[in-house]
Design brief:
Length: 395
């Protein structure tokens, strides 16, 4: 009775609601500390929203690196081959020699790409396909300055090139190189460049996968494991930087697939670091090769092949690398590798995929002897393959 009287005389309905809420909080979360009114002082700022946070780090990264991103314009004169059809005496008699002399045999090709400055001496990184065999290279900075560029070195296998500009006594903005080995799937990715002729364009995405081989991307003539990103990369972005959230360069934007929607690829910056100094000195970058065309073999693929009465050969039903073709006069041919061989190990290391074999060969030295373990006609062979130097075809 006294408790009831106390409630009636001492606690208002508003206080009852507060007590009830306090009981619920206590039941849900444990002991409740005495509540205090929230106060906002000039030193206490509200937590930033996701949009504010996202905008701030992208802006900071671009402000840090953007001035070092350049536009690269190229010119190349190519000679056109006149169709032999027009060399027929009948047509020369009909049209006259003057007509044929007026036909243009040379054509000026123009190209465009991106790059970024990596030191105060004017060293610029870009893609090989942006500047390869260009007769003239013009570099334009974000601040409006133009420079003549000199192509110091090109490596078409890794699609990398170094261009140099002479800025005299004026200072140049420089991009900071990061560490691509520390990049993880899901990290922010910021692409900066000049896509489709639209200078100083920035796109944002994430790293969608790592170690995507060039063979999987559809460019088997390269020796690369790409960073894959969904940051928009378009023609003209080639050679520009891919940045992390701190504005450090983690890759060189290089490839897009025409049949892909929202997928781009960048060369990891640590791959670039391994060859940039050689290219800057004008030196050739050596790439070892053995000279085979190959596919990854699985037991399932082997069984499907062996069930086919028209299959050119039977293969063992196990994991390995199937040799589809041996290049004539190659190290593989000299060592005795044959079509239909299944490579299961190199130097005692098990090989299960074509990508693994490619990486192992690429990480070897030109002239190094590699011991291939091969299955052929239910026999296990040990073949010694001395790697040669790949001579890429220049476009």
């Amino acid at each position: 009775m006294r408790w009831t009287k106390f409630l009636k005389t001492s606690i208002s309905p508003t206080h009852l609601v507060a007590i009830a809420l306090g009981v619920l909080v206590t039941l849900s979360f444990g002991t409740v500390l005495p509540t205090q009114a929230a106060t906002v002082t000039p030193d206490t700022a509200p937590a930033p929203t996701l949009a504010q946070t996202r905008g701030s780090f992208v802006t900071a990264a671009v402000n840090r690196v953007g001035p070092a991103v350049v536009r690269i314009d190229t010119e190349r004169v190519i000679t056109r081959n006149v169709d032999p059809f027009f060399d027929d005496p009948f047509f020369r008699q009909f049209f006259g020699d003057q007509f044929f002399q007026s036909m243009p045999r040379e054509q000026l090709q123009r190209g465009q790409g991106s790059g970024f400055i990596i030191d105060g001496d004017g060293t610029i990184l870009t893609n090989a396909h942006v500047v390869n065999q260009a007769d003239r290279v013009t570099v334009k900075l974000k601040d409006g300055r133009d420079f003549e560029g000199r192509v110091m070195g090109v490596d078409v296998v890794t699609d990398l090139a170094v261009v140099k500009i002479d800025a005299g006594n004026t200072s140049l903005p420089v991009a900071t190189l990061g560490d691509s080995d520390r990049v993880q799937v899901g990290d922010w990715a910021i692409a900066v460049g000049n896509p489709l002729g639209l200078d100083n364009t920035v796109t944002l995405g994430i790293v969608s996968t790592l170690n995507r081989s060039s063979a999987q991307v559809g460019i088997p003539d390269k020796r690369l494991d790409f960073i894959q990103t969904d940051a928009a990369i378009n023609p003209g972005n080639s050679g520009g930087p891919l940045l992390d959230e701190q504005g450090r360069v983690i890759g060189v934007n290089t490839a897009i697939r025409a049949d892909a929607n929202g997928i781009g690829f960048a060369i990891p910056i640590n791959t670039v670091k391994a060859v940039k100094d050689q290219l800057a000195r004008g030196e050739n970058v050596a790439h070892p090769f053995v000279g085979i065309q190959m596919i990854t073999l699985t037991p399932e693929i082997a069984r499907e092949n062996n069930r086919d009465p028209n299959a050119p050969f039977r293969v063992p039903e196990q994991q390995g690398v199937l040799v589809m073709r041996v290049v004539p006069n190659s190290p593989a041919a000299a060592a005795g590798l044959r079509r239909g061989d299944v490579i299961t190990a190199i130097d005692g290391q098990a090989i299960e995929t074509a990508d693994e074999l490619q990486r192992l060969v690429e990480n070897s030295q030109v002239g190094q002897v590699l011991r291939f373990q091969v299955l052929r006609d239910n026999r296990t062979l040990q073949l010694r393959v001395r790697t040669g130097e790949l001579q890429p075809t220049r476009s």
